[in-house]
Known about the structure:
- The protein is built from ten helices and no strands.
- By secondary structure, the protein is mainly α.
Amino acid sequence: MFEFSGIRGNVNLAFLHQKIVDNKVSGLLIFTLLFCLGNLIQIPGWIFLAAAVLALGRTWGGMASYVAAVVSCTVTFFTIRLIGGDALRELKNPYAVRILRKLDTDPIKSIVLLRTLFQTVPALNYALALSGVRFHQYLVGTMLGLILPIILYCWFF
């Protein structure tokens, strides 16, 4: 739907930067909404981070990106969980079972590590939502795991 409507093609660094610069409040709301949609339609999160940092600077851009990323991951979690439930638990593949068992052993630590490595990669959001992990574990792991990558992105942008 997003591909055919042309929205996906228009979500780029220049568009996001201009929206934030034009009006900070509505720009940040649009930014957060687009970040949520972007995660659902497989647009990499670094595009949103770069736009916020370029428009607002390292500190404010980093904070805006952090909040938008957490909101986006939360929206993705609930959307995918609503559609697919805990579908990955139905897999009988020994490799998948082993991965899910590791996730069950220490879910917050596992999610922190995954977020640190892969940030808001849409495929990770989908997999975690379908894994059956509890929302509070997902949220805590996401909030802790995004801090370092966003700081590093801000530093290098």
